[in-house]
Amino acid sequence: MSYFVDEKSIVREIWKNTDVVLLIFAGSAAEFALNKAVDWLYFTGKIPANPLERLFSTVEYAQKIVFSENDLALATIDSITQIHQGVEKSRGKSIPDWAYRDVLYMLIDYSIRSFELLERKLEITEKEEIFDVFYRLGARMGLKDLPTTFNEWVVDRNLHLENDLQKGKFAIHLFEQYKKHLGSFRYFILIQIQQILVPKVVHVQLFQTSNFPTITILKLYKSSKKIRLDHLIKSIILPKQHKENLIKIGKFEKI
After folding, report:
1. Domain ranges, ordered by start, for the chain
2. Which of 23, 132, 164, 198 is the residue whose CA sits 20 to 30 A from 187?
């Protein structure tokens, strides 16, 4: 049986790890709030209205691509493309090509950053493998001007970070929605994690310098996994209504 992502791929190791997946989307949530195309989120209103539910929906799509047989993965990618085309048709304009690339680049970058933060440093070949999977995803979606190698992506990623971000009213409102749906304590934890996860240019635009020992929190969390308290901690960090979604994310952990 042929899979879109090889069964021994580092990408599968990353995307079956619940903790890493949550960090990927914590980082993406911070950065995309700054994206100059964030107004597209407000056209349908679904993400600002319920950012956590949309987060878990996006995770479900991503994991279906990573763990499905090739034809089903391609069909899933095509359905994502059709959804975006439907939004474009409703609005009467096209999502900019650079905005599509920005989202793809976030998935690559935060897959690497999140895994390295929680687990270990990745080899260059593993980073290239991560890039290749998402390059093929982007190519299937018909995205234009994609870099064809990991090194080219690094250069273009930095250019996008410098040119495509700004802190405007949508960014401020989106973070207000994060706080509303998470509550003050969980929101505080989210901000602390985001501060050590995002690239410098994102950090500068979003956050003031924090002296809170976030690294210490991460070390304590890693220690909690050894004594099997991590599930308890995750249940505290995430609102009760999303416990089932957390279970769905972790369904691939034993693969």
Report:
1. 10-252
2. 164
